[in-house]
Amino acid sequence: MKKLKRSARLVEMTQYLLARPHTLISLTAFADRYQSAKSSISEDLAIIKEVFEEEGLGELHTLAGAAGGVKYIPKMHKGESLSIIKNICRQLEQPERVLPGGYLYMTDMLGIPNLMNDVGRMFATVFADRDIDVIMTVETKGIPLAYATAMFLNLPVVIVRRDNKVTEGSAVSINYVSGSNKRIQTMSLARRALKEQARVLIIDDFMKAGGTVQGMMDLLHEFDATVAGVGVFVESGEVGMDERLLEDYVSLAKLTAVDLKTKQTTVIPGNYFTP
């Protein structure tokens, strides 16, 4: 790479870090990339670190020593998170989203790149300090949420299928009880998709009693894997604590009431700030 002026180098370094979250980058790598002295690189990183923290873009962690360097940790300020979550609640309260059975139509929201980008950064913020190897979700609506979160945590995504696909090879399948309709359903995961003893973050779009999430947890036991956390886009508040199959999870929004006659819904912020 050609030698850049300092202003241009700062811009390029910032973009380089933003594109590589949770990745340790040595000062030597930066010095070689920009043909600059390590002392100059250190000064540039100090400027970027200050801007990141002041603007709520995240944190820049410095690791000393021969194997050290810098690592960008995406974060979102509480104020910005609350504003986004309140906007999500307002959108979910639109009467036209109410479907028969009291369900909410959310597919269009899960297809908005900017919104998924914000949701991914929020999940990445709350789970930043967890030791995680992979993100897991079940097809299909949870996929955009999982990939958005994985982008900011720089982790791979594993997708649990409703049935085994020939192209997936041998798989592990289990039966689980759906929390919403109490039906016995099946989910499967290819044996090659997940290493044993992996630490897994589960991401899902909607949780009522938690049957689907519990099913994924049971599936993880077959791989001798552990659950590092659970994040859900929307949870139902119409389920009593005695019916909820899990307690340790983070939700962005909470559906507390649905009137099928008037199509009025009440959606409030979830437990994101008080998990």
CATH class term of the largest domain: Alpha Beta
Largest sheet: 6 strands, mixed
Q: What is the CATH topology classification name of the largest domain?
A: Rossmann fold
The secondary structure category is: alpha/beta
Number of distinct beta strands? 12
- Beta-strand residue percentage: 25-35%
Number of domains: 2
**Overall pLDDT score:** 92
Order of strands, main sheet, comes to: 6-5-9-10-11-12
Order of helices and strands: HHHEEHEEHEHEEEEHEEE
Q: Measured on Cα atoms, how large is the radius of gyration? A: 21 Å
N-end to C-end Cα span:
45 Å
Globular, elongated, flat, extended or rod-shaped: what is the shape? Answer: globular
Give a brief outline of the structure.
This protein is 33% helix and 27% strand. With 275 residues, the chain is an alpha/beta fold.
Description:
With 275 residues, this protein is of the alpha/beta class. The protein folds into 2 domains: 69 residues, Orthogonal Bundle (Arc Repressor Mutant, subunit A), CATH 1.10.10; 192 residues, 3-Layer(aba) Sandwich (Rossmann fold), CATH 3.40.50. It is built from 7 helices and 12 strands. The protein has a 6-stranded mixed sheet, with helices on both faces. A hairpin with a 3-residue loop joins strand 3 and strand 4. Helix 5 packs across helix 6. The longest helix has 17 residues. It is globular, with a radius of gyration of 21 Å. It starts with 5 loop residues before the first helix and ends in a 6-residue tail after the last strand. The model has no long low-confidence stretch (mean pLDDT 92). InterPro entries: PRTase-like, PRTase_dom, Pur/Pyrimidine_PRTase, PuR_N, PurR_Bsub, WH-like_DNA-bd_sf, WH_DNA-bd_sf. It comes from Paenibacillus abyssi. Belongs to the purine/pyrimidine phosphoribosyltransferase family. PurR subfamily. It holds the Pfam family PuR_N. Keywords: DNA-binding, Transcription, Transcription regulation.
